[in-house]
Amino acid sequence: MKTKNNIPSQLIALILAMTLFSQCNSHKANEPMNTVIKDNHSYANPSESIVTHLDWTAELDFEKHIIAATAKLTLDNTPQVKHVILDTKGLNIVEIKNQDGETLNYELKPEDPILGSALLIEIDPETTEVSITYQTTPEAEALQWLTPEQTQGKVKPFLFSQSQAILARSWIPIQDSPGIRFTYTAEVTVPRDLLPLMSASNPVEKNTTGTYHFEMKQPIPAYLMALTVGDIDFLPLGQRSGVYAEPSMLEKSADEFEGLENMIAAAEELYGAYRWDRYDIIVLPPSFPFGGMENPRLTFATPTIIAGDKSLISLVAHELAHSWSGNLVTNATWDDFWLNEGFTVYFENRIMESLYGREYSEMLAMLSLQDLKAEIIEISATNPADTHLKLNLDGRNPDDGLTAIAYDKGYFFLRLIEETVGREKWDAFVKNYFNTNAFKVMTTEEFVEILQRDLIDENTVGLDSTFYQQWIYGPELPANCPQPVSNKFDNVEKALSNWQENHDTVTLDSSYGSSQWSTHEWLHFIRLLPENYGIEEMTLLDDAFDFTNSGNSEIFALWAVQIISNQYEAGYPNLEKFLVHTGRRKFLTPLYKELIKTEEGTEMARAIYQKARPNYHSVAYNSIDALLK
Ligand code: BES
Ligand code: ZN
């Protein structure tokens, strides 16, 4: 068929389609510019100029603890643009050029202690690229440079980054806002005896040049930029998964993560295809400040989850789940952090249920509820508004939002919706939510809208506007919070009262099966011990179960609180070892808090901290500094 002027209609259709496609494409990674959401934790001006791609070239100096780099940023500008504004923190800017190699004027604004310094670069609408040549400082907050002694192998140095929430700007000048996504490539040069890895396509072994190339094809926010370098080896676990670690940790780590392919399959079965090609894990040195970090394609993990019996593997389920909740559908600002973490705890729990059964996942949910209740009591005393799911972190460090509220209140909120509408409807909704919002940002308000539009109608009893008001914008824990059920925990409670009566290990096993207990049952048991339990009682428990020498970090960290509160001296050497060796903040904070409750404890805390502090990442030592101040 021909149109009047003899152009084939197919051609017109093609031209039309191409025009439409190119229009969509120009803002491919991001929302149309006028809908960019205000982020109080970034100086960026995405509504005028937005970063869509990064080419990062870097050379690492392990003597000086400096990265010398060029960040070439591709920009998408509005016709009126005069500046692009980037986030930086402690960077030494050398020069800035445009795509034609012309030098650009810039201004580095005074540094805010939390947000860092805005970098204003003069551009015009035709500036498609800015190339920033710069150096990091040894104090760059995201980076921890480890001496050989601080590694497992003790021979070679190590480096890792931790960018979330707003520390990417301390090693890359970038628009450091979770609502701004970009693709990236990197060319990284390291000493020839070390291997670099990023949140991107990764090498599996060292080469002879020391220069490596990386590519992340899917657009990601800056908080997912990640780099680690060390004497690192790789073992495949399956077709699309594997594990990296220092040589001496590699076998153990591979054993612990043996079921990883099944876990990915279980996650996909629940909520749709894994969209990042590969899923690998790196087991970092013990100073890594978190349990895990969901860097795309390469989860960063603490070695404290390598328990030898796979008992702490739910952490991997958690980081894997972030490949959907967080990395695909991303909290628009840190005030919406619960959308990342609450969804992830929910998804983690479902993965664990499908792999290990409901009994198992209900134990996790019980522990989560206990954490939540304790956290609510603690936060309510000082900052009741911080118990709302939707936070207001304006003027504060987004780190303040890292509490059990986002994680566990978020989890129970979603679980309540599941229980109200039924699992089938809910799962279909969630799968569709991840799909239709993939590579997009999400605000709490938009989530509520989508929920109401796609899942909840007027007939859904109990899910009206008061419901959102209470759970999302209200304090504490609403009365309709779901209650997990765990027969195993009921059994542990009975076992404990029996133990209190007769201190008899034989009945503990014969009547309550303690020799078969999982880590989670032991955790419940230890959590239930009275606060000032007494040295004699602790000695009896130790004689029977040797908690003081437990190789399970979760069990030891909990027991260590008792060691402190009871001044149980038999536990002091291991307590000190643990605090000096481990930099995982979740373990450190409760222990130092417990120590500083007494005068002797405070003295002990200071003495230990003096030795321990050089081993901690800034995220950890900033928190502990504040405690001991
Ligand atoms: N993304 C978080 C860690 C994080 C959050 C770092 C905010 C910095 C700012 C990660 O997924 C996480 O939640 N880690 C937990 C794991 C646990 C809940 C299974 C951790 O590190 O303990
Ligand atoms: Zn998480």
Q: Your description of this structure?
A:
By secondary structure, this protein is of the alpha+beta class. Among the domains are: 329-472, Neutral Protease Domain 2 (Neutral Protease, domain 2, Orthogonal Bundle); 529-627, Peptidase M1, leukotriene A4 hydrolase/aminopeptidase C-terminal domain (Serine Threonine Protein Phosphatase 5, Tetratricopeptide repeat, Alpha Horseshoe). Helix content is 40%, strand content 18%. The protein is built from 19 helices and 20 strands. Strands 4-7-2-1-10-12 form a 6-stranded mixed β-sheet, with no helix packed on it. A 5-stranded mixed β-sheet has the order 14-15-16-18-17, with helices on one face. Strand 5 and strand 6 (117-122) form a beta hairpin. Helix 13 (519-528) packs parallel to helix 15 and helix 16 (572-581) packs across helix 18. The longest helix is centred in the middle third of the chain and has 25 residues, at 358-382. The termini are far apart. Mean pLDDT is 94; it is low at 1-29. The protein binds ligand BES and zinc ion (ZN). Zinc ion (ZN) is lined by residues 318, 322, 341, 344. It is an enzyme of class 3 (hydrolase). Its EC number is 3.4.11.2. Its cofactor is Zn(2+). Its main location: cytoplasm.
